[in-house]
Write a structure and sequence with these properties.
Radius of gyration: 21 Å
Helix content: 25-40%
Distance between the termini: 27 Å
Bound molecules: 2-keto-D-gluconic acid
Structural class: alpha/beta
Strand content: 15-25%
Largest sheet: 7 strands, parallel
Strand order of the largest sheet: 8-7-6-9-10-11-12
Length: 315
Amino acid sequence: MPKPQILQVGPYPEWDQTPLDESFIMHRYFTANDKQRFLAEVGADIRAIATRGELGANRAMIAACPNLEVISVYGVGYDAVDLAAAKERGIRVTNTPDVLTNDVADLGVAMMLCQSRGMLGAERWVRDGSWATKGGYPLQRRVWGRSAGVLGLGRIGFEVAKRLASFGMDIAYSSPTKKHYASQWKYIADPVELAKHSDFLFVTLAASAATRHLVNREVIDAVGPEGMLINISRAANIDEDALLDALEQKRLGSAALDVFEGEPKLNSRFLNLDNILLQPHHASGTFETRKAMGQLLRDNLAAHFAGKPLLTPVL
Ligand code: 8YV
């Protein structure tokens, strides 16, 4: 049996690349200088696309592969895959849910703590000698006992809320329907009302056309000058211009973000702000989780080519 040929959209760590290269013929799209020409050359041989959450696979890429059978995403978010284009051609799609949930929740909570207690500034205070010359670090805001909102109570949102509960926070959540497994927390369907309730508003929505800019100026203003917005989902869930305006004008107290429009480049306005914590989209970035994500991506591909049920199908 010839090895199936796969279009690889972005790089993977060596511990994933080696087994992929052993089982498949991997065509490295990300190394091609002329991407269109590369697709024209290999497209007809491609039976699978292996991609990453933030890279996805757009309609043109899918169209360039007439014999495509499956798109396997290294990531839980599949918003960058053109699902309509895949569906039209009966192409299967898989992702890597569950294995990353706890790490993403951990980073979200760590970002809240780090930003609220001013830990980055405090570290600089020690290193630059301010502690010795100026005295104690300026006082910061507490986290425990304050109120938190979780916008999107999926797997990640649920784990965030569980962690916040251990800080004795007053927790509310919003999702399209009330969740039977979350009766210990307040359900506030309207994002603006949820934001009014929240000293800390976590955005944990699975991104889609329906959630685009759900966090708009009104929601941001409802979080307010004493509040903090934390985003560990996708940048598109927030109106980034409205967020930048609010941070610049101090209508929003602060933000902690792991995701940005156009990442890894980001709007330079972010870099001039002192009321923001910037993280390089690494909420799932631990050895343990990334290895589990790579394994699940490969297991889905192997299942597909063995004619077995997919482990974590999206489509
Ligand atoms: C990853 C992600 O950073 O799971 C997702 O949807 O965005 C992240 O876990 C990404 O897919 C790794 O490239």
